[in-house]
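Journal club prep, notes for RB
We'll compare a predicted complex against what the paper describes. Inputs for the threonylcarbamoyladenylate case:
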Amino acid sequence: MRTEVLCLREGQEEEKIRKAAEIIRAGGLVAFPTETVYGLGADALREEAAAKIYAAKGRPSDNPLIAHIADRSSVYELAASVPDWAERLMDAFWPGPLTLVFPKKAIVPDGTTGGLRTVAVRMPSHETARKLIRAAGVPIAAPSANTSGRPSPTIALHVLEDLNGKIDCILDGGEVGIGLESTIIDAAGAVPVILRPGSVSAEMVREVVGTVETDPGAEHPVKAGVQPKAPGMKYRHYAPKAKLVIVTGRDEAVAERINGLTAEYEAAGTLCGVICTEETEAGYRCGNKKVIGSRRHQETVARNLYAVLRQFDEEDTEMIFSESFDGGQLGQAIMNRLKKAAGYHMIRV
Ligand code: TXA
Ligand code: MG
């Protein structure tokens, strides 16, 4: 299969989006930008379209997909029941980086939900995504547009790296804004439960609903034999080829430990890398240090995380040491992805 790249910055946007929508309607696969990461879209109401997504990504078929909608009214076509507090969350955060899980209606095929009786629904704010969904006239099932296990794509080139020849088309809308996947909240129970942290933080949910819980799988490794609520959490996501270790503590102590470790590993011939920030960069001696962003602008760290992990892969880095990024609106989401990438390998100093 030849993968066609339609670049939206080069004009004729409407025509390109119409073309992509036709591919979706015909049961094909289109990668498209959202405000979080690039998604790999197919018709959410066709069982065989979802099967194509799983095949292209190499994704386990019990890992359900998020149905993306462009209008609030569509949620009632997919969800069998919507609690009042979920309505308030939609008022506050839709369109935007929030996914809600509801009991599903029969119209949603089991192929889309990995056999679950619930369906995850999200209304993205990215204009291209919304135009594509409207033009397709169906909800679009879309996981992140990466090969299963690789970091999610934040530019069209990442999608091409992973899926060239495996999908029909890529809508290239430039770099995404947020860089980490949406917050997922279980709305099938009595109170909101965060299944995956994202840029809509627990605090922001609490402000709207008054209460919020966090599923243990969102913060700790899932124990063997336990079926997590979001099946995706049991897989080793966002994994770079290198071993990644997070070092946490006071800035100077972290730099000192990482300098010691990189010196040791490099002496043994291991290719090392360091993830640091504008504020801390000067403290590192390792030749291959990458500035992920600025501590004063946490959103830059979120936006660059996956691209930095991909760069280390390209350079065949074997051992990566990273600072940690707790606190603030994005801290929980950044650390969730970083810890998973590290297989929860952390050193406290
Ligand atoms: O920001 C995002 O959410 C991006 C963009 C493309 O919209 N999409 C995304 O999809 O991150 P994906 O497939 O990479 O991650 C979806 C996660 C998986 O961990 C999956 O297990 C969980 O959502 N999920 C989907 N449906 C679910 C359901 N019915 N119940 C519980 N978890 C569900
Ligand atoms: Mg994903």
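Talking point for the session: The longest strand covers residues 98-103.
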